[in-house]
Amino acid sequence: MELFEAILAGLKLVTVVLGAVFLFYTWRAYRKYGSPQLLILFVAVLLLTAAAVAEGLMVQVLKSPLDEAHVAEAVLTLAGFGVLVYSLVYRAMRTRTPQSFEGAHPTSDVGGAGADTGTTILDAIRRFDRAGYTGQYRVLDDATIECLVCHTKHAPEELALEDVARVEGTSDPDDEGVVAALRCPNCESKGTLVFVYGAAAPAAEGEALRRLHDARPGHS
Ligand SMILES: [Zn+2]
After folding, report:
1. Are residues 205 and 136 both part of a single domain?
2. Residue 183 pairs with which residues in a beta bridge?
3. How far, in Å, is the centroid of ligand 1 from the Cα of 191?
4. Which end of the chain has fewer CB within 10 Å, C or N?
5. What is the structure's pLDDT at 189?
């Protein structure tokens, strides 16, 4: 029996170490990307890791009755899998079809200040900002675009689309979209306009994006 207890203790130890490594990287990724999904995964694995050692700890250390320890383990396992299922449902509910922007531009052919993989919308805006696209635009209900520097309203065709960053998002659909780098024909300022994917995106934005004058090299 001694031998089996030692083997069991060893197996539990390895489980805890693996769980801790997984939790460490999941937490780090969560801090980096801020995705709620990663936090949910973190909680689930925390519960399952706790479940793996709960019985041993309760019986060996806390001297709890064996049946209580069994119940504790079962409850933690159930909670862990419950959180995992919730995570899937959460994902399914939040995943929306990118609709209005499909085929707006035949990208991901992004160059210059544009996106590379693993970027976020905020990263793309910052990169364009460093490249001199410091102004901003907004799309109005009639699909015209207002330059927020000189407050002139333009038909999308009048604005030069100089670069595009297509952001795939990490696991959060709200962080998927297109960041367009534009130049205003009135005040000559350069700035960015963000188009976010998803069902909530106004139709005017999709139309405005499609109608932009593509001034990127090789895209006339
Ligand atoms: Zn302007």
Report:
1. yes
2. 160, 190
3. 9
4. N
5. 93
The two structure tokens encoding residue 140: 């109005």
Residue 190 CA to ligand 1 center (angstroms) comes to 8
Same domain? 148 vs 203: yes
- 138 with 69, same domain? no
The Cα 126–Cα 129 span in angstroms is 5
Looking at 94, 129, 156, the residue that finishes a domain is 94
Those residues of the chain that have pLDDT short of 50 are 96-117
pLDDT at 123: 86
Classify residue 100: in a domain, yes or no: no
151, 76: one domain: no
Tell which residue, 141, 150, 110, has the closest CA to residue 205: 141
For residues 189, 112, 198, 118, the Cα torsion angle rounded to the nearest 10 degrees is -130
- Predicted confidence at residue 147, as pLDDT, reads 95
| pLDDT tens for each residue of 16-71 | 999 999 999 999 888 877 777 788 889 999 999 999 888 888 888 888 888 888 89
